[in-house]
Amino acid sequence: MPLPTSKPVADSHDDGISPVEQPVKALRNRFFRVLAASTLVITMIYGLQRLSRSGLPNFFRPSCWKGIHGSAPLLPTHFTLPSGDKIPSVALGSWRSGPGEVGRAVQTALKAGYRHIDTAWAYKNEAEIGEALKASNIPRNEVWLTSKLWNTFHAPEDVEPALDESLARLGTDYLDLYLIHWPVAQNKDGTLNKELTENNYPTWQKLEELVAKGKIRNIGVSNFNIRRFEKLTSNSLKIQPAVNQVELNFWNPQPELVKWAKEKGILLEAYSPLGSQNRVKDSLDVPEVKEISQVLGITPAQVLISWQVQRGAVVLPKSVTPSRIVENLLITKIPDRLFNTLEAVATSHKPERSVDPSKKWGVDIFE
Ligand code: A2P
């Protein structure tokens, strides 16, 4: 009579493994299961970290998992102008993007998803930008194109020829936005035209005509302070300026202008958002900017660019470096507490402009 055993003998011999080998096999199986699970978990964590660092959508950022973006995690991708047109909130800036590099920068930007390119007659890069736009094969109506009227073309008879030159160089028959580059009119020899500088209305009337002709969709100004802007709009304009493109960055945050623009419903565009080439390093090294970048898992440049959009401005970071062009497009809402910290620290020091040709041109532009 067989003795009662805990395991039937036949079972232990089913797979040809002796009772002595069985615990070893069980242990081995468990080891491989644990190894497989750990490998899977490690791979997932590593993958998510890579995604987070590569600047992919907010969802992958640790900050987003903590829910610190609050109820509205996204910043506007567009702002709506009085005409009803929607202008993309981030553009590729091209001031100082030179020949041989600006075309490649535009191509990189368009591939990365930019649909807004900012240029000017005076940047001397419109032709190369036009070629890059053509080479991209992106339909014209999918890209927002801004250019600017230079100071020596403010006389009404000079405005249309200057615009036509920009259109020809850019290879297009209309601009989405055309700006008076500076509130400064210069004669052909570079001397100041005082009359047209103090009264931009004749120049503006010409721009209104060109909108009616279909060569421009929206018109605006650039580098106008509040007084100069209000002086222009005190005339009975057919079309109000859609934007004012100004220097806005950590060193020159212009809180009064930002507040005034918000109250009046005027869209600001922020040029040199990183402090321009001379101050970009200082900007990225601001302790509060670095701190916010760490909390949000984004780069310092992305903090500064996001900050301007969150203040209500279109932002125009300039770069000719492919990785930076891609980086600069990815904006993130900054939680209110951190946004207020950045606003406070930026507005608590003496403002410093990186661009002010007042002395050179013999007129106190910003007064
Ligand atoms: P580069 O064009 O060689 O990439 P701003 O937009 O304030 O005028 O700043 C432009 C300057 O900042 C350029 O010198 C540009 O260099 C540099 N820049 C642009 N994007 C970044 C970035 N993400 N990180 C560091 N520097 C940048």
UniProtKB/TrEMBL annotation:
<dbReference type="InterPro" id="IPR023210">
    <property type="entry name" value="NADP_OxRdtase_dom"/>
</dbReference>
<dbReference type="InterPro" id="IPR018170">
    <property type="entry name" value="Aldo/ket_reductase_CS"/>
</dbReference>
<dbReference type="Pfam" id="PF00248">
    <property type="entry name" value="Aldo_ket_red"/>
</dbReference>
<keyword id="KW-0560">Oxidoreductase</keyword>
<dbReference type="InterPro" id="IPR036812">
    <property type="entry name" value="NAD(P)_OxRdtase_dom_sf"/>
</dbReference>
<feature type="domain" description="NADP-dependent oxidoreductase">
    <location>
        <begin position="92"/>
        <end position="337"/>
    </location>
</feature>
<dbReference type="InterPro" id="IPR020471">
    <property type="entry name" value="AKR"/>
</dbReference>
<dbReference type="GO" id="GO:0016616">
    <property type="term" value="F:oxidoreductase activity, acting on the CH-OH group of donors, NAD or NADP as acceptor"/>
</dbReference>
<protein>
    <submittedName>
        <fullName>Aldo/keto reductase family protein</fullName>
    </submittedName>
</protein>
